[in-house]
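lol forgot to send this yesterday, sorry. struct tokens for the thing we talked abt
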């Protein structure tokens, strides 16, 4: 992980004496902690990683995760592991920071309580915000990360391809969501990468709808948005269907979303600005009858988190780089009627992109 420490520190505007990543209590865990400390299992609540300019890493963990922590520490000679009980942690961190006077923190993830605690441990230190450097470092994935993302996407794709066979009248949204998550775990996921979205009929008009006890009826549109965690890396895939015969409007909506996704994908290669990807999809939708019905950015980076830091919106001008992994997910949302979203995960290659998700995306009508 020495390379990753150096990658982050090298992206800071000025040198620091240390970088501290501190976890609070679940869900306030900084995924960047796991970027530097690649543990196979465990929550690591209240654990702290202290990275030094020479690439060495001190990790302070609790006895709860001692076994997992030792596995990770043994595989990397640049990691020094310290196990500390609740009362021993603060003096240990103080000691490990030595005479550091300029220390970087991940402002985007550190809780305010965690910050106050660090101020008490080391008053007088100048704290630097490392969140931009961390986000940038994590944006381009190494081969190990891409392999995990590929596997997470394969799991999502496998289950995505099985959904049409699961649909039957009377099925509840929550039952389908549970089936999707169960099948992902059976295929090797360690869990869902976010709460599975299953939206029947008008519910599909809300991109982040939370499934309930609504039952599937013939003629309903269906949006399923889900993803797997595999060795801490997330996939994120959406497939939209229609249960029974679709009307002419929903067919046209689906065709338009497909065309929008194709237009966005066609722009992807290193050097292209993120907003060009977004605008390519938006143009297709805005030239159709559903102008203005793309109500979110057309994608986001994925990695240790399903929303991994970068968003592809109309104003984001950062250029794409080889090794970035993100979603391409245009949608059209029709309040009172339903929605269609098609979402795939891709990796930017030297000359373009490669799909990580492969589930069929063309079909829509499923026999009721
Ligand atoms: N799963 C939420 C999203 O697609 O961003
Ligand atoms: Mn997404
Ligand atoms: Mn999604």
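and heres what i got for the seq, position by position
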């Amino acid at each position: 992980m020495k390379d990753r420490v150096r990658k982050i520190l090298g992206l800071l505007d000025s040198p620091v004496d240390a970088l501290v990543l501190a976890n609070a209590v679940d869900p306030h865990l900084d995924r960047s902690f796991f970027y530097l400390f690649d543990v196979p299992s465990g929550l690591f609540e209240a654990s702290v990683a202290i990275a030094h300019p020479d690439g060495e890493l001190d990790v302070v963990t609790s006895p709860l995760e001692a076994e997992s922590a030792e596995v990770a520490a043994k595989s990397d000679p640049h990691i020094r592991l310290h196990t500390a009980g609740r009362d021993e942690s603060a003096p240990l961190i103080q000691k490990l920071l030595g005479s550091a006077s300029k220390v970087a923190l991940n402002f985007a993830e550190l809780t305010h309580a965690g910050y106050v605690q660090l101020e008490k441990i080391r008053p007088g230190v100048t704290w630097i915000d490392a969140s931009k450097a961390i986000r940038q470092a994590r944006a381009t994935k190494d081969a190990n990360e891409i392999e995990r993302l590929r596997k997470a996407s394969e799991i999502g794709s496998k289950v995505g391809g099985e959904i049409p066979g699961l649909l039957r009248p009377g099925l509840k949204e929550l039952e389908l969501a549970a089936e999707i998550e169960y099948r992902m775990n059976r295929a090797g996921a360690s869990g869902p990468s976010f709460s599975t979205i299953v939206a029947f009929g008008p519910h599909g008009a809300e991109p982040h709808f939370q499934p309930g006890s609504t039952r599937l009826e013939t003629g309903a549109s269906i949006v399923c948005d889900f993803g797997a965690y595999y060795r801490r890396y997330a996939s994120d895939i959406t497939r939209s269907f229609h249960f029974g015969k679709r009307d002419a409007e929903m067919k046209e909506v689906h065709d338009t979303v497909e065309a929008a996704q194709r237009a966005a994908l066609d722009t992807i290669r290193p050097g292209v600005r993120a907003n060009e990807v977004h605008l390519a999809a938006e143009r297709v939708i805005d030239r159709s009858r559903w102008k203005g019905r793309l109500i979110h950015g057309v994608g986001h980076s994925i990695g240790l988190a399903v929303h991994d830091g970068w968003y592809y919106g109309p104003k984001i001008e950062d250029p794409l780089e080889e090794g970035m992994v993100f979603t391409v997910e245009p949608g059209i949302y029709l309040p009172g009627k339903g929605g269609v979203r098609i979402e795939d995960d891709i990796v930017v290659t030297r000359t373009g992109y490669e799909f990580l998700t492969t589930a069929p995306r063309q079909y829509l009508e499923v026999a009721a």
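The mean pLDDT is 96. anyway ping me if u want another try
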